[in-house]
Design a protein that fits this description.
By secondary structure, the chain is of the alpha/beta class. Helix content is 28%, strand content 26%. α5 links the parallel β11 and β12. α1 runs parallel beside α2. The longest helix has 36 residues. Bound molecules: NADP nicotinamide-adenine-dinucleotide phosphate.
Length: 341
């Protein structure tokens, strides 16, 4: 166990964590950034980022992350591999148990552990993620001008992705495992009424075809009149197979915020597991702050995550200053209260 607690630990090394690290390091908080199993976060799964301010030619997701890390290191941020497995936040300093077996103590904590897009589990997805397969239409949609693409899912995200993609693609087919959408009425209606959006009902994606060189070239869909065809296929029932020529596949079957390690703590989470924040990036537990997709189910953009990372570092800095000032005042009062010799 480290002897002296750190001033600030940032859990997560995606763009929110890196942005927090740059601000905190410049404020001399000597932040320790903990990198989990997906160092760099979701941006490392994206090829080009064209909507991050300041890069008129676009920038690779990986490059953006690497540059952010260099920037944070330049100001003295430390990086260490370790997934936070449990956090004791009921007393300060907080104690974090890492997957490496190490224990870290810290006076303050920024949770920037992100959210992971759910993956379908289709054959080919491991190879093609970032090469025509994407979990973010806002990031990658513009590469599909004139293409035919699939969107997998039947919720609001799938409708939103389909509507966004329909601005670029020739055709967008929403592949949904049932015959009824989960999306809100208004989003569903917009997608259903759109000329360029079609629906493959009671259908699921079995396989994505292509290569990293050629990108996505097609996909195999399965369907069953009662829905959930892959379950039926696994149970040995007959399902219909269809090969489709598409150049892009977008997963929109939901995100999971990476907050499992906080479930048993006093930190408030919403029903989907996202961290709830009050003023700025403060959570309900003093000294714990939240940044990025782990607290933002709505915008989920690189630039907004970087913004909340900066906010969390500023909030943490101010809170630590206030704690230090209160401790100094208490010490002074204790000295003043001592009987003089
Ligand atoms: P969601 O509401 O949980 O919908 C996920 C969809 O993916 C469902 O249709 C689900 O099918 C399908 N799905 C899940 N696992 C699957 C699998 N393994 N294979 C195939 N399909 C699968 O998630 P979301 O659409 O990301 O929305 C999350 C929350 O954000 C919701 O509360 C939503 O309203 C909100 N949101 C709002 C907006 C907006 O208002 N503009 C935009 C985006 C998101 P089933 O229906 O069969 O379960």
């Amino acid at each position: 166990m480290s002897e002296e607690p750190r001033e600030l630990v940032i859990a997560g090394s995606g763009i929110a964590g890196l942005s927090a690290a740059v601000y905190a390091a410049r404020a001399d908080l000597d932040p320790l950034v903990l990198e989990g199993d997906e160092p760099g976060g979701q941006l490392t799964l994206t090829t080009d980022v064209e909507n991050y301010l300041g890069f008129p030619e676009g920038v690779g997701g990986m490059e953006l992350i690497q540059r952010g890390r260099e920037q944070a290191e330049r100001f003295g941020a430390e990086f260490e591999h370790g997934l936070v497995e449990s956090a004791a936040v009921d007393s300060r300093p907080f104690t974090l148990e890492l997957s490496t077996g190490e224990t870290v103590r810290t006076r303050s904590l920024i949770v920037a552990t992100g959210a992971s897009a759910r993956w379908v589990g289709a054959d080919g997805e491991d190879d093609l993620m970032g090469y025509g397969l994407s979990t973010c239409a806002t990031c990658d949609g513009a590469f599909h001008r004139g293409n035919d693409v699939l969107v997998i899912g039947g919720g609001d995200s799938a409708m939103e992705e389909a509507l966004f993609l329909a601005k670029f693609a020739d055709s967008v087919t929403v592949v949904h495992r049932r015959d009824e959408l989960r999306a809100s009425e208004i989003m569903a209606r917009r997608a259903l009424d759109h000329d360029a959006i079609e629906f493959a009902w009671n259908s699921e994606l079995l396989e994505i075809h292509g290569s990293r060189e050629a990108g996505v070239t097609g996909a195999t869909l399965v369907s069953h009149p009662d829905g959930h065809p892959t379950e039926k296929l696994e149970a040995g029932e007959d399902v219909e197979h269809e090969e489709v020529d598409v150049q892009g596949v977008f997963y929109a079957i939901g995100h999971e915020p990476n907050t499992g390690f906080l479930e048993e703590t006093a930190v408030d989470l919403d029903e989907s597991g996202h961290l709830l924040t009050g003023e700025g990036t403060h959570t309900n537990v003093e000294g714990v702050f939240a940044a990025g997709d782990v607290m933002d189910p709505r915008y989920r953009q690189a630039i907004t995550a970087a913004g909340t990372g900066a906010m969390a570092a500023l909030d943490a800095e101010q809170w630590l200053d206030e704690q230090a000032a209160a401790a100094a005042e208490e010490a002074e009062e204790a000295v003043a209260a001592e009987p003089s010799a």
